[in-house]
Amino acid sequence: MKQYMPMKPIKRGFKIWASADSDSGFLLNLEIYTGKKSNGIPDIPLIFKHLCDGIFSCGTFRVNKKYYPKHFMKTDVKYTSGDIEYAQSEDIGIMRWKDRESKPVTLISNMQTLQIHLQY
Fold first, then answer.
1. Do residues 72 and 92 touch, judged by C-beta distance below 8 A?
2. pLDDT tens-digit readout, 22-36
3. Quick one: which of 34, 94, 108, 42 has its CA closest to 85?
4. What's the superkingdom here (predicted)?
């Protein structure tokens, strides 16, 4: 089922979510959007569960979700083009940036800790 996505450069297309093993490339899970049932967007408990199960994951994150660190991050209106923020709690990191004139993008990940990031 083709979807209309007004914020994407190509406005009509298919929504597909996939999880794959980073070493072997094997597909672990695949979901093709067929209508409204779930948003497929990760949240902090799911990312933490993946980490405990040995699955590294990352994805976009909605800022209105529970556990989002609102006290660390700026609100949407305070971002200017090129702004980047990063917050981390144990092994889960959240990065937020604004690219051009669009809304800020929020990424959540359990793939990289701050200690690893600072080594480079």
1. no
2. 888 888 888 887 766
3. 94
4. Eukaryota
